[in-house]
């Protein structure tokens, strides 16, 4: 099973959307294997967003992600990275498909509610940055065959 990092960003926490976002992921069939609520330091935010250093939106992004508590998750499932990103919708909520989290619940790119790893390589790196091995739980969910087993 593939794992990916999901961040429910400070704007979603402030707006009381954590449960809604988690429900959409779980309803899709994705399984939560790690989660924690925290406020990140500016230094940690800079490490997480290091790939964006020098881009015009970098400073705002770092300030935004460290401004208030967020919920960090690791979710698992077949092709979890693609499934999560599809569930979230495009980065710009105005370009996201109806039914996606960003389309339905956000309106501007700089307050787009969530972060999701964009590749297997970044998922592995981001999960290691945000979670220690003992914070990720491998467990069997009785409903998994109803989501994943091929006929």
Helix content: 40-55%
Number of helices: 8
What general outline do the C-alpha atoms trace?
A: globular
- Mean pLDDT across all residues, rounded? 95
Describe the structure.
The protein is an alpha+beta fold and 151 residues long. It has a single domain, classed as Nucleoside diphosphate kinase-like domain (Alpha-Beta Plaits, 2-Layer Sandwich), CATH 3.30.70.141. It has helices at 10-14, 18-28, 42-48, 58-65, 80-88, 101-105, 120-130, 144-148, and strands at 2-8, 31-38, 70-77, 114-116. A four-stranded antiparallel β-sheet has the order 2-3-1-4. The chain is globular and about 50 Å long. The model has no long low-confidence stretch (mean pLDDT 95).
Which helices and strands appear, and what pairs or packs with what?
Blueprint lengths: L1 E7 L1 H5 L3 H11 L2 E8 L3 H7 L9 H8 L4 E8 L2 H9 L12 H5 L8 E3 L3 H11 L13 H5 L3
Antiparallel strand pairs: 1-3, 1-4, 2-3
Short description:
This protein has 151 residues and is an alpha+beta fold.
Key attributes of the depicted protein:
17% strand; Alpha-Beta Plaits; 40% helix; globular
